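Input (structure):
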C-alpha cells in the first residue's frame, strides 16, 4: 500500500475512496437493513397467522364437540379460508361428527378430502378411517383396497388389525387370522392377540 507522507494526502485519499465507494456502501447498508427488517416482518406475520389459525381451529373444534347448531357451517368456512394442516384436522373432526350422526356418505367425502393432504400421517389416518366407513357401508372390497394404499411400516400394526376386522366381517376367517398375526408380528398388542385367539378354528 502507498505510504502517505502528509496528512493532506491521507485526507485526500480517504475523500477519493469515499467518493468512489460511498454510494455502494450506503446502498449495501440500506439493502441489508431493509432485507433484515423485511425478513423479521415476514416471520412476525407468519407467527401471527399461525396463532390466528390455531385460535380459530380451537373454536371450530370446540363448536363441533359441543354440537352447536352452526358448527358444521363454521367448520366449512374454516376449511375454505385456511390452507393448512388445521383444515385437514377440521375435516377429520367433521368426518367423526358425520359418523356419529350416521351420515357415512358425508363422512367419506371429508375423509377423501384429507387424503389429498401433504402430511403423510394425516393421509394414513384418513385412509384407515375411510376403510372403516367403507366397511360399515358394506363396501368390504373397497375398504380393503383403501388399506393397500397405506404402505408405511409404522402403520402396519393398525392396518393389519383393521384388515383382519374387515376380512372377518367379510366371513374370511383364514385371511383375518393371517392379518391379525401380521399385526402382532409388527407390534405386540394384547387386544389383537385376543381377537386372534377368539377366532374359530
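Output (sequence):
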Amino acid at each position: 500500500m502507498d505510504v502517505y507522507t502528509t496528512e493532506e494526502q491521507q485526507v485526500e485519499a480517504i475523500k477519493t475512496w469515499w467518493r468512489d465507494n460511498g454510494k455502494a456502501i450506503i446502498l449495501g447498508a440500506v439493502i441489508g437493513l431493509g432485507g433484515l427488517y423485511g425478513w423479521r416482518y415476514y416471520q412476525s406475520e407468519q407467527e401471527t397467522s399461525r396463532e390466528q389459525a390455531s385460535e380459530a381451529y380451537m373454536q371450530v373444534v370446540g363448536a363441533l364437540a359441543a354440537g352447536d347448531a352452526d358448527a358444521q357451517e363454521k367448520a366449512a368456512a374454516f376449511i375454505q379460508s385456511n390452507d393448512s394442516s388445521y383444515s385437514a384436522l377440521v375435516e377429520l373432526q367433521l368426518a367423526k361428527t358425520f359418523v356419529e350422526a350416521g351420515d357415512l356418505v358425508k363422512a367419506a367425502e371429508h375423509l377423501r378430502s384429507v387424503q389429498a393432504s401433504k402430511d403423510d400421517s394425516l393421509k394414513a389416518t384418513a385412509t384407515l378411517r375411510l376403510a372403516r366407513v367403507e366397511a360399515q357401508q358394506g363396501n368390504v372390497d373397497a375398504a380393503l383396497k383403501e388399506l393397500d394404499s397405506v404402505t408405511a411400516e409404522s402403520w402396519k400394526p393398525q392396518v393389519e388389525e383393521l384388515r383382519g376386522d374387515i376380512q372377518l366381517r367379510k366371513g374370511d376367517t383364514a385371511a383375518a387370522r393371517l392379518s391379525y398375526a401380521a399385526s402382532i408380528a409388527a407390534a405386540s398388542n394384547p387386544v389383537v392377540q385376543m381377537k386372534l385367539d377368539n377366532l374359530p378354528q
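Notes: The chain is about 80% helix and 0% strand. The radius of gyration is 31 Å.
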